[in-house]
Specification:
The structure is a single chain. The protein is an alpha+beta fold. It is built from three helices and two strands; from the N terminus they run αββαα. The protein has a two-stranded antiparallel ribbon with strand order 1-2. A hairpin with a 2-residue loop joins strand 1 and strand 2. The radius of gyration is 13 Å and the shape is globular. InterPro entries: Thioredoxin-like_sf (IPR036249). It comes from Nelumbo nucifera. This is Glutaredoxin domain-containing protein.
């Protein structure tokens, strides 16, 4: 997890990854370096039973 309030470099990195100039809405979820989505996308993955595919290899997943 990265806290954007602790390092402005994280915000610039996130803007570069997402291809946006304006600040993104948060949270933005990455699993093992892969962008999964924001709140709505993660909720939808969970409701469809797909989120577990992304986290099953992690402790508690």
């Amino acid at each position: 997890m990265r806290d954007l309030s602790m390092d402005a470099g994280f915000l610039k990195e996130l803007q570069r990854i997402l291809g946006r100039k304006k600040p993104p809405t948060l949270p933005r979820v990455f699993v093992d370096g892969r962008y999964i989505g924001g709140t709505d996308e993660v909720r939808q993955l969970h409701e469809m039973g797909e989120l577990k595919k992304y986290i099953k290899r992690f402790p508690g997943g």
